[in-house]
Amino acid sequence: MKIDLTINKQKRTFLVEPNEYLLDVLRRYDYHSVRRGCDNTSCGVCTVLLDGKPVPSCSVLAIRCENRDITTVEGIEKEAEKLAHYFGELGADQCGYCNPSMALTVYALKRENKNAGDEDIKSYLVGNLCRCTGYVAQHEAIKRYLGDES
Amino acid sequence: MEIKEYLKPKSIEEAYEALLSNINNKIIGGGAWIKISLKKVDTLISLDDLKLNYIKEENDFFEIGSMTPLRDLEINKGLNDLAGGIISKAIGNIMGVSIRNIATIGGSVMGKFAFSDLLGVLMVLDAELIFYNSGVISVEDFINMPKIPKDILLSIRLKKQTAKGYFKKVATTHLDFSILNLAIVYNERFKIAIGSRPNIAVLAKRTEEYLNGFKKLDEANLDEVVKISLEEVKLGDNSRGSKEYRELLMKTYLKRGIREVIK
Ligand SMILES: Cc1cc2nc3c(=O)[nH]c(=O)nc-3n(C[C@H](O)[C@H](O)[C@H](O)COP(=O)(O)OP(=O)(O)OC[C@H]3O[C@@H](n4cnc5c(N)ncnc54)[C@H](O)[C@@H]3O)c2cc1C
Ligand code: FES
Ligand code: FES
């Protein structure tokens, strides 16, 4: 069946099956920045913003996104670049697999809580796993990004 | 998951009829649990168009629509004032923000999960469940029902009360299920629930009764409280923890929780 949704501010029509998850549909339509990890709501690498809120796209049926707004990392390019700058500065990146989902989640946190402290950052990012870095440099980079009002 | 048909009813009646019409039809809440547990369904019934996503604050109660995501409860100002923000404390410890943006309160109740961090909290808050067909059922009665009713949960009602609250989840990491969880509400009288024992949450009624008999508690009374609770609350083993470990957790956190709410 056909569903219309707005993705990164552009209206698009997608052909979906009733049992297809948003992650599968997005990847089928070449949104490869949306990644698959656990496929069971545990790792966060498939995160997209649904109506501005982070959700695990592996667990949201695509059909339920009809007429809703989806944002992938391409939709927050400028903010993602800013975060990438701090990640680079602090060596907070290794393979980069988790980066798009981290960027979207941190961006959502910045919009929700302008004064997020250490504990707020940690608890907001509990569901975003990174297999490489050990989180310390990432945490510092995220703090710098959150404090960057440019 | 195999889905033959996806139905988006325009009324609760239509959803209920669809639910009853075939044993293999199922309601979808947030779908997070269904994703990992359901292999095959004939008609998946969505409640998305039925306006069940809301938190209403009335003079003496809150009413929460069953399709409200857990995260909305967690950050709701009014609910955060209820019993020391016990709801927010319990929800804030469930996985990450993104899953809490999809998992609903309705799915959390209807799943009747033994590991649930919420059912005990709803019990100590005397929550009422409002069903389309069965009407109003207390969460305690719902938990004690041998079978989950084939019905649609419309909303959950929570009485406003000035009470102190305590919630503790013991888990290996933030992404794990509880090894044990405890919820305590104190408002002249105690309400205590122990969950993930590993069985589903129960009220510790004899313990509550003993506590409610005191004007002032001291450490010796707390030792007796622990003794009674260990006699009445059945703890067991599973892969997350042994019975002995759970006993130690219950002893420690029950005392801490009681001390905290009577402070
Ligand atoms: C990976 C993972 C980890 C989790 N960890 C925890 C944890 O640590 N602690 C914890 O407390 N919870 C945990 N949960 C459970 C979670 O918090 C939700 O309770 C769960 O996902 C169910 O909510 P849902 O909206 O996703 O329900 P769904 O998956 O949509 O549905 C669950 C069940 O409820 C039924 N249902 C849903 N809504 C209604 C309704 N309105 N009327 C009638 N029936 C209905 C469905 O038919 C289904 O049988 C976890 C879930 C997942 C997926
Ligand atoms: S792939 Fe979705 S949470 Fe891991
Ligand atoms: S940098 Fe490799 S998973 Fe995060």
Write the layout of secondary structure elements.
The complex is a heterodimer of chains A (150) and B (263).
Chain A: E1 2-7, E2 10-15, H1 22-28, E3 47-50, E4 53-56, E5 69-71, H2 77-90, H3 99-112, H4 118-124, H5 136-147
Helix pairs in contact in A: 2-3, 2-5
Chain B: E1 2-7, H1 12-21, E2 26-28, H2 32-37, E3 40-46, E4 55-57, E5 61-65, H3 70-74, H4 77-80, H5 86-91, H6 97-100, H7 105-110, H8 119-124, E6 128-131, E7 135-138, H9 139-144, E8 153-159, E9 164-170, E10 180-187, E11 189-195, E12 202-203, H10 205-212, H11 219-232, H12 243-262
Parallel strand pairs in B: 1-3, 2-3
Antiparallel strand pairs in B: 4-5, 5-8, 6-7, 6-8, 9-10, 10-11, 11-12
Helix pairs in contact in B: 10-11, 11-12
The site of one FE2/S2 (inorganic) cluster has 12 residues of chain A, from loops.
Cα radius of gyration of chain A in angstroms: 15 Å
- Report the total helices of chain B: 12
Q: How would you state the average pLDDT of chain A, rounded?
A: 96
Characterize the quaternary organization of these chains.
heterodimer
The tally of strands of chain B reads 12
Shape of chain A: globular
Report the principal-axis shape of chain B.
globular
CATH topology description of the largest domain in chain A: Ubiquitin-like (UB roll)
Task: Characterize the biggest β-sheet of chain B.
Answer: 5 strands, antiparallel
The helical percent of chain A reads 25-40%
CATH topology of the largest domain in chain B: Uridine Diphospho-n-acetylenolpyruvylglucosamine Reductase, domain 3
Largest interface: A-B, 27 and 24 residues
- Which ligands accompany this protein? flavin-adenine dinucleotide, FE2/S2 (inorganic) cluster
CATH superfamily of the largest domain in chain A: Beta-grasp domain
What number of structural domains do the residues of chain B give? 3
Strand order of the largest sheet of chain A: 2-1-5-3-4
Residues in helices of chain B, as a percent range: 25-40%
Helix/strand order of chain B, N-terminal first: EHEHEEEHHHHHHEEHEEEEEHHH
Q: Helix segment count of chain A?
A: 5
